[in-house]
Amino acid sequence: MNFRSATMAMIVFIACAIPGASCANAKDIYSPAQRDALAAVVALFTAMGKHDVDASRRLILPGANFVVLLPDGTVRIEPDTGYLDTLGKHREIFLERIWNAQVTVNGNIAQVWAPYDFHLDGKLSHCGIDNFSLVRTAAGWRVAGISYTVQKTGCMASPLGEVH
Fold first, then answer.
1. pTM for the complete prediction?
2. What is the pLDDT of residue 10?
3. Is 163 within a domain?
């Protein structure tokens, strides 16, 4: 399976987790522009899972910030360079999944908002809400910023099922 078909399979999988959606019409849930923006998010998750700093760098605009709302209410802001440095140093198995993605596109800007769960070495680490701001460049959709919540307890079961 090539990258494009693997990305589409993941988007269909995410779409199938939308309440009331049937997998038969999952490709119709998102417009082509929405699918393309969502594909950039899926590509970033794939790169993260492989600890692929170069691929991640190509998907994130220089200067993008990662804004994290921690369980105690603390807000942590990390620049893209900090994320990329940290990603390259870790060796654990990362898996982040989203579902029920709300994707809004207007011209060359997009937002992807979705619940997520994050697994570290096959075990649930935390969950929360991901919010991606994207811009379309000549190279395609790129992440301009990410904000997300971190919830360590009370995570609801994902409609995507258990991680094995």
1. 0.85
2. 55
3. no
